[in-house]
Amino acid sequence: MSSKTKVRVAIIGSTGYGGVELIRLLSSHPQAEVTSVISSSSAGAPIAEGFPHLYEIRTELLDDIDPLAIKAKADVVFTATPAGVAAKLAPQLLAAGLKVIDLSGDYRLTAADYEQWYRKQSPEQEYLDQAVFGLSEVYGDKVLGAELISNPGCYPTATLLGLVPAVKEGWIDPNSIIIDAKSGISGAGRGASLGTHYSELNENFKAYKVNQHQHTPEIEKVLTDAAGEQVTATFTTHLVPMTRGILSTMYAKVTGEHSTADFIQLYRNYYEGRRFVRIRPEGSYPATKEVWGSNYCDIGFHVDPRTGRVTIVSVIDNLVKGAAGQAIQNLNLMMGWDETLGLQFVPAYP
Amino acid sequence: MSSKTKVRVAIIGSTGYGGVELIRLLSSHPQAEVTSVISSSSAGAPIAEGFPHLYEIRTELLDDIDPLAIKAKADVVFTATPAGVAAKLAPQLLAAGLKVIDLSGDYRLTAADYEQWYRKQSPEQEYLDQAVFGLSEVYGDKVLGAELISNPGCYPTATLLGLVPAVKEGWIDPNSIIIDAKSGISGAGRGASLGTHYSELNENFKAYKVNQHQHTPEIEKVLTDAAGEQVTATFTTHLVPMTRGILSTMYAKVTGEHSTADFIQLYRNYYEGRRFVRIRPEGSYPATKEVWGSNYCDIGFHVDPRTGRVTIVSVIDNLVKGAAGQAIQNLNLMMGWDETLGLQFVPAYP
Amino acid sequence: MSSKTKVRVAIIGSTGYGGVELIRLLSSHPQAEVTSVISSSSAGAPIAEGFPHLYEIRTELLDDIDPLAIKAKADVVFTATPAGVAAKLAPQLLAAGLKVIDLSGDYRLTAADYEQWYRKQSPEQEYLDQAVFGLSEVYGDKVLGAELISNPGCYPTATLLGLVPAVKEGWIDPNSIIIDAKSGISGAGRGASLGTHYSELNENFKAYKVNQHQHTPEIEKVLTDAAGEQVTATFTTHLVPMTRGILSTMYAKVTGEHSTADFIQLYRNYYEGRRFVRIRPEGSYPATKEVWGSNYCDIGFHVDPRTGRVTIVSVIDNLVKGAAGQAIQNLNLMMGWDETLGLQFVPAYP
Amino acid sequence: MSSKTKVRVAIIGSTGYGGVELIRLLSSHPQAEVTSVISSSSAGAPIAEGFPHLYEIRTELLDDIDPLAIKAKADVVFTATPAGVAAKLAPQLLAAGLKVIDLSGDYRLTAADYEQWYRKQSPEQEYLDQAVFGLSEVYGDKVLGAELISNPGCYPTATLLGLVPAVKEGWIDPNSIIIDAKSGISGAGRGASLGTHYSELNENFKAYKVNQHQHTPEIEKVLTDAAGEQVTATFTTHLVPMTRGILSTMYAKVTGEHSTADFIQLYRNYYEGRRFVRIRPEGSYPATKEVWGSNYCDIGFHVDPRTGRVTIVSVIDNLVKGAAGQAIQNLNLMMGWDETLGLQFVPAYP
Questions:
Q1: CB C73: neighbour CB atoms within 10 A?
Q2: N- to C-terminal Cα distance for chain A?
Q3: Order of strands, edge to edge, in the sheet holding A132-133?
Q4: N- or C-end of chain C: fewer Cβ atoms within 10 A?
Q5: Residue A309 belongs to what domain range?
Q6: Chains touching chain A at 3 or more Cβ pairs under 8 angstroms?
């Protein structure tokens, strides 16, 4: 396919980590190309000024946000913007005839949940209804042909891929689920604060937003859908002194007699043909570095006969499978392409 | 008190991290002094050769292990040795008239549990019976006058200080307990292996020994004692890319109506007068760096009315409160001194 | 000495890293005690609010800056303030009868150099004349009885202790000196910016302020003093992804025939009796971690007969010997006490 | 080009960091494919056993070293082996009709220098004569059609790309050169030792092999070639607590009147058309993270009129441009392909 016939992509929020990761990943995509990088705060400046790693690679200036101008340059827009921005922008972009893949949390919840957990005004109901939740390996079939895709959060992606098959199959008690999640610092974005200060985080480990993280309702919504009954989960998040990676350790009561090997087989069946989920063999638990820079989600299992509980360990790169990579996977699915197109990176190890 | 009347201390295993941390902490102890540093593998070499940070501070040579020679130089021996060594040494040291504080796991379990989880031959029953488990804030009253003290493991210290008051009071269902623990790498000791290799661990986070860590029976033994019934717990350990620090996140079903504030009050009462446990106010959760280099254990709480569970977050410096510091605290208690003697370090921040 | 007769110390800038490190180190000083912690930006708040590691250790509220009120509580003031603040404060504090030890750069340079390199208005000449430059092992004899002490910068401390003896003795060509210095991130202070953002600095190493660091004239001034002729040096600074520590690698042309062993002997003679400078034996080069948390400066040497140059490697903890520790050492010298009082910490390793 | 006509590549040393990086980079090469992964120590085991990040990506077993068997599967062999191994293997591989690209230091020096600095027996002179030193941007024209390529060391690559143009042009005094180089820990390989132990290296910075690094003669050989006279350089290496990246800071006396802008122009001219060297504009100095995971070498400059010296800062990813990436670049040049084939990765940031 020649460059002229590639799908043209614009990125709003090109000066955040999600935005530059989209640029990195799309640089080798065979059927899509980035034709506009957009930042309202830095419009007019060369993108490489704030990101010298792009020096001589991306030489264009940052565009401002203007739906009609974007439409002239692009077919699809990724919005990698702070909470509340896409809620206002997406209707305009859709009206201009663009397809939208939103990486923020704006379209993931019901209006009430959104306002409670994000403390922002919710998008209009019409657009909430229209948005497809792009957890690729679970809802991928709904993504084909969608106009507005809501890309899942990083914690929900790691967590839900580790829980959905067992909940759907009824192998675990959905109201016994405890999720202990850990994330690298890049999940907090590029904004400078005491909360992202090197000397405060290095050689340090801490819990934050205990029982109050805004990804809680997103996780519970999908678990409820999988269980066919209302699910409430315990969800605690922690910060790890590293840049990339999420590891989610999940605990639940096993219903019935299911061994570790049974769980492994159940998940292998569920994810059959989905290249980006790798189910580890018995005794092997994934580490975040083993998916670093790639779109993989690796999952390991252990059923403890002493307690009757299963421990599930799931890892992703929060900026790839947890953000930009899954967004591109959704672009592929939306366009009817192979979902792995342009995403077959080997993890960078070590 | 003049140097001549100080209690004389020998350290076996002076070339490990526990051993050098004992040297660091005891250097400013007003009533104890290190008179012999011992290492069977490096006997005859200056201790500063392997630890240049001690250059010009400790100039003596490492002694070999010889109970009678130790007795000539010391009153108390700390054994900071690999699993199985103290099981053989302690009887000889006791026979020579020395008091022993063992930092390894050799005297913490029943014979059967020890052989199952450590895969070593257990110490003789006589000495298992004699050993006092030195979790200072829980069993401190039994330490006074003891001859053989078994210093708790790092994970059990952080975990049990966070659980014992609630279990004792019956505020949580002891068989609902899930412990998700995270440790810095120094907990693995100074031995070189792929498991302690910088490039493998840096920018990485992983689970290990899922449901199979050898500290499990030590934790369950104390919880069983506190609950007055047999307790089984889910316990998973993780490695954090940092050198020092343990954070234990604990989850349990709350029995009855107890708020976050209630838990805080319960723990403040339980630990009243014990300086090294700091109960955080509501909304504050401790980070490992906030106790770095010190003997503190900080604990925070959150009861989630949505799930009926309490989340307890506890942190220590694994080499201090989780090893050398608590060992000195036990020396203080054993001798009838103030337990804070020589241990009133302010955490090194940042 | 009872608490009542201790020297009373106030710290202005208690919410920065220099300030809290003073609090940590002074907590065990036998003849000084902190009686007022001061912060204009957070006056009225408990100091432990911004620094939870001090919880239950320091329970007082932060005072505002008021020279007379300070005088009522203290005898000596440490100013650990941003550039330009002490230039205004010190005259008022001196006028109130307080002794001042300034940790900022305000009193280290000539008026002209200060304005060129710091881009602030210089302090009045009278006070520049009065200030004693407290590089303890070089100018310590001038510190006794001083009223205003200018504590050296972190880079100059590591660098000058490594260069002064050889320059004084004429063993190296002073105009051939190249200083390649590396610092942990805490040297940049606690302010939040992209320059202190974890994800930008972790797994990263970079040069900054090449040939333009404001510590250049401070270094050249002392080298000029030691050489007895005008010295110009090349000085480049780098950021290391760690919190604490400075390592300075220095290169110079050796004049005459001096071996590595000769250099070691020269420095041992020069620093005889000064406990905080440790000259390493031949073949041993210091690492920053080997002085972590302590007031030591360790120095190693290698003369290369192939090139006729000497390589000198010097390390300090930037927050201790490079700031708070040396400031206390200057307090000791100023008061006529043993310079090691309250500073005999063993480095925390690992 | 279909897979059948791709050049077939074997990798000896597939269980080291250089080997797995070759696998990662070659996975997207359009004209080469890895057909045999070889490890004498782990032959018969699945490669993903020791490197779980390759799980389901590379499913084959490791082959043993057997030149004829390799020849049946491959056209070109990369030897990413410890010092001394390729010296013995390369003649056999060449005799079997294979082309060899050696990533070790075995073929980089004269026989006498090799034996002095590597303390191993040198390869036979015939093969030393035959080997082409593959510093791509300097000697690339000699690589076309070569049978045996010696891939440069990581430190020499970063250093020489920063020095050769100025030395060739006579703009700096070649005998005034001082090289202060810093490397991430992955440069030490995957072998476990105290020297690669996490707790020893984290939050630590140190110099090593001062004036004695085995890359010294490799650097001096190329500088001598560029200068047209014998060059001796001062070269010191340091370890940075990070996994990947080398930064080399270089100092030299400028001959004549050349500004920073002049240097920039000189280097832009020299490297014109060579995509992997990026010359930064005035005031911009590269950081290692800005080339992480990519084949770029970025270089910045500053001429200090105060001292008459130039400071040159150069960065690479030691495992890519310093090893596997440049080796593939040499494969491309050897085969007459565009040197950027399969190497156009955007650096992974942050």
A1: 13
A2: 34
A3: A32-38, A7-12, A76-79, A99-102, A148-150, A132-133
A4: N
A5: 155-318
A6: B, C, D
**C249 DSSP β-pair partners:** C180, C313
d(CA B135, CA B270): 14
Dihedral pair phi/psi, residue B314, rounded to 5°: -130, 140
Candidates C204, C216, C230, partner chain D, best to mutate (most D CBs within 10 A): C204
Task: Name, in order, each residue with C-beta under 8 angstroms of C349's C-beta and a sequence gap of 6 or more.
Answer: B20, B24, B51, B53, C289, C290, C292
pLDDT per residue as tens digits for the range B43-73: 999 999 999 999 999 999 999 999 999 999 9
The tokens describing B109, both together, are 């379990």
Mind telling me how many Å the CA of C317 is from chain D's nearest CA?
A: 11
SS3 content of chain D, % helix, strand, coil (to 5): 40, 20, 40
Pairing mode of beta strands C178-183, C246-253: antiparallel
Is the backbone of residue B6 left (phi > 0), alpha (psi -120 to 50) or beta?
beta
Q: How many domains does chain D have?
A: 2
Residues A11 and A69 in one domain: yes
Chain A residues with beta carbon closer than 8 angstroms to that of D53: 289-292, 294, 346-347, 349
Which residues of chain A make contact with B243, given a CB cutoff of 8 A? 203
The CB-based long-range contact list for A303-307 (8 Å cut-off, 24+ gap) reads A303/A254, A303/A258, A303/A259, A303/A260, A303/A262, A303/A263, A304/B211, A304/B234, A306/B211, A306/B232, A307/B211, A307/B232, A307/B233, A307/B234
Contact D53 A284 (CB under 8 A): no
What length does chain B have? 350
Task: List the strands of the sheet with C206-208, edge to edge.
Answer: C206-208, C234-239, C178-183, C246-253, C309-316, C297-304, C277-279
**pTM for the whole structure:** 0.97
Interface size, chain B vs chain C, as Cβ–Cβ contacts under 8 Å: 82
Kindly state the helix (H) or strand (E) to which residue A268 belongs, with its residue range. helix A260-270
Residue A236 lies in a domain: yes
Q: Token digits for B303?
A: 């009861």
Distance of CA A33 to the CA centre of its chain: 21
Classify residue C268: in a domain, yes or no.
yes
User: Quick one: residue C68, left, alpha or beta (phi over 0 = left, psi -120 to 50 = alpha)?
Assistant: alpha
CA-atom Rg of chain D in angstroms? 20
Within a domain: C274: yes
Place of tokens 């200030």: C131
Residue A27 shares a structural domain with residue A114? yes
Q: Are residues D126 and D165 in the same domain?
A: no
pLDDT digits (tens, 9 = 90+) for C192-208: 999 999 999 999 999 99
Element (H, E) at B251: strand B246-253
Which chain C residues are closer than 8 Å to A241 by Cβ? 198, 202
Spatial distance between the Cα atoms of A91 and A95, rounded to a whole number of angstroms: 6
End-to-end Cα spacing for chain C: 34
Report the gap between the CA of D24 and the closest CA in chain A (Å).
6
Interface ipTM > 0.95: yes
Write down the mean pLDDT value for chain C: 97
Q: Which residues pair with B312 in a beta bridge?
A: B250, B301
Q: Give residue-wise pLDDT tens across range A195-252.
A: 999 999 999 999 999 999 999 999 999 999 999 999 999 999 999 999 999 999 999 9
Question: How far apart are alpha carbons D241 and D268 in whole angstroms?
Answer: 32
Alpha carbon distance A82, B204 (integer Å): 27
Check whether residue D124 and residue D159 sit in a common domain. Answer: no
> Cβ B344–C293 below 8 Å, yes or no?
no
Which of B94, B101, B108 is closest to B78 using CA atoms? Answer: B101
Distance CA D246, CA D248 (A): 6
Check CB contact of A53 with chain C, cutoff 8 Å: no
C302 assigned to some structural domain: yes
Q: Is the peptide bond before D350 cis (omega within 30 degrees of 0)?
A: yes
d(C-alpha C344, C-alpha C322), whole Å: 16
Q: C204 and chain B: CB distance < 8 Å anywhere?
A: no
